[in-house]
Design goal:
The chain is mainly beta and 120 residues long. Helix content is 0%, strand content 55%. It contains no helices and eleven strands.
């Protein structure tokens, strides 16, 4: 099964910080991008932050200035540092990896999700 491995998350008070980490599955031919999405109860899954192979980074407007995504040089691991957390950041956070599995075949792979709960 090709699935990213997530760690981190948990319960924190508003204004606190948490750090999420994601390791890409092994044996991928080439990773195109990695990132984090989140889904709150009753809402659709939304982008939080992504980083691509060229180093380009994209943040949701709601997390700009509070969250920072960082990658290792090989783009096999990404971390999401979340500061100044708000109750509205409460959600299940999913790691996503977009990668080629062969020279021509590519896919999008999701982690199982990790809960982040911010209390007011």
């Amino acid at each position: 099964q090709v699935q990213p491995v997530e760690s981190g998350g948990g319960l924190v008070q508003a204004g606190g910080s948490l750090r999420l980490s994601c390791a890409a599955p092994q044996n991928l031919y080439a990773i195109i991008a990695m990132g984090w999405y989140r889904q709150a109860p009753g809402k659709e899954r939304e982008l939080v932050a992504t980083v691509n192979r060229g180093g380009g980074i994209n943040y949701a407007e709601s997390v700009k200035g509070r969250f920072t995504i960082a990658r290792d040089s090989a783009l096999t691991t990404v971390n999401l540092q979340m500061n100044s957390l708000k109750p509205e950041d409460t959600a299940v956070y999913y790691c996503n990896v977009v990668a080629y599995t062969t020279v021509t075949a590519h896919g999008s792979y999701w982690g199982q999700g990790t809960q982040v709960t911010v209390s007011s």
